[in-house]
Structure formats: C-alpha cells, structure tokens
C-alpha cells in the first residue's frame, strides 16, 4: 500500500536551513499485549494524513478555529518527518525508537507531535522528555490508564499514566474526559489520587467548560498533551475501539488546546487510539486532522 502524502502537504525539511517549530512523526506500534493484534492502529497516521489533503492547498487561507491562517501569516514552520519503523510485538525495540526520535526532535528545539498507534506509544514519547523537564501532562481520555501491568506487560495501553507518574521529569498531570467504566479498579484510582493526579470528568467539562481542567495547570508550565481519540464523543469520533457515550465535543477539545496555549506552553503532543477499521465515512480521521491543525496553530502562536 502506498503511503499517504505528508500532513497538509508539509515538507520533510524547511527551505533555507530554517529550524522547524514543530515536527510531526508517526509510530504505528508501541508495546502490544501478548496475543493481541494492534495492526489496525498502525493505519491511523496515514488515515489522518489522507484526511488532511483536501485542505493542503488552503494552508494560507483564514481558519476560523484559529482566528487567522494556520501559520499566522508567516512561512510554514512545521514539517512531517514520516513514520519511524516499528514492528508489532517488538515492544522494547519500538519503545527505543520512539524515545530516540522524540529526543532527536527536542534537540532541534522543536515541538514533537506524535501520531500513534495505540495508547502505549505515549510512554516512550514522554520518556523522551527526560532532559527537557519538568513537564506537566494534560491527558484527554475516557480512561485513566493507571494499570501497573496487564497480561504481564507493564508498558501497554492500559499503563501510560502509571508509567508517566514514575518519570522524575513529570511534575504533575491532569486527566480530562473521564467517564463510564474501563480497566481501572479501586486500587488504580487510589494510586492515581495518591500520586496527585487531577481527575476531570467529561460531565464536569460539560457543566463548567474547559476551565474545569485548565485551572489545574500551573501558569507558564511546559505541558505535553496526550490525546486519546476515545476522549471525544463517538458521535464525532466513532473510529475507536472503545466507544463511550458522553465524551468531549470538538469545540471543547479545541478550546482546551487554545486555552492551554494561553495559560502555559505546549512542549509536545501525541494523538493516539484512532482505529480506522471502526471509522465511519472517514469522520474520525477528519476530526483528528482538524485537532492536529489546532495543535499546530496554537504552537505557532506561542511566544
């Protein structure tokens, strides 16, 4: 299968030797559970790139989500570096490659933007910030992801926030969009609360707005956003493996991104858990592409 063109037609390097402000890269596989097939998630990055192509010629046009063109009237400063090589069930190798790429992008003083992959890829992505801390984590997800291990695997998609809490460079976390039931038992809830994680349910955001989450982020903090697609309502994001009613709206998530850009500084972002086999008419990929546009536009506007 031929890979999709780059996101919004972005180059893989900037002209005149300029350094990028943000670097997109994909990672199809992280740490897969024994006997599980994660190949559907490996389709996500190219599905998002394909969904962006209709707007590739419109990059300089006015974007009402951002209040101006994507790059705010300035030259393109984001590149798409393509996908790093990953192999299903090569868990340790995948983690090493994802962390190394993240460190490489940060060494350029650019903001890394990772397209997953299932929700195990944030673990090595966050590990890559070890020399660039302290960072806070803003997680958008229906689930808290605090299992210590599942099926004998400590680095799988049920464990990213548990592993992040053990990283010395992670200063704190806010988990927003929580609802319904997942793999968390009372012991995981208590562990997260003991760590000091701030839980913000989807119902709280619906009732109080995104400030319910943003108020927990220290002003001026450097923040890594990890965006699990099932944090959004399945009415606009049906292409996930665990559809759960009552999720965040598109407007709430882009308000959260914009508000974070004003309050703090986005140091990195990942978008994970898009499952193209479950998508409906490409709606989820389109929504994911627009979320990525809003992330890039917010990063560009950071001073």
Q: What's the CATH H-level superfamily name?
A: Ureohydrolase domain
Helical run tally:
9
Mean pLDDT: 97
Structural class: alpha/beta
- Main beta sheet: 8 strands, parallel
Helix content: 25-40%
Order of H and E elements: EHEHEHEHEHEHHEHEH
Low-confidence stretches: none
Please report the distance between the alpha carbons of the first and last residues.
40 Å
| Rounded radius of gyration (Å) | 18 Å
Based on DSSP secondary structure assignment, what is the total number of beta strands? Answer: 8
**Which architecture per CATH?**
3-Layer(aba) Sandwich
Please explain how this structure is put together:
Strand 4 (135-140), helix 4 and strand 5 (170-178) form a beta-alpha-beta unit. The protein is globular. The relative contact order is 0.17. The chain has one domain (7-300): Ureohydrolase domain (Arginase, Chain A, 3-Layer(aba) Sandwich), CATH 3.40.800. Helix 1 (44-52) crosses helix 9 and helix 8 (250-263) runs parallel beside helix 9 (283-300). The protein is of the alpha/beta class and 303 residues long. 30% of the residues lie in helices and 17% in strands.
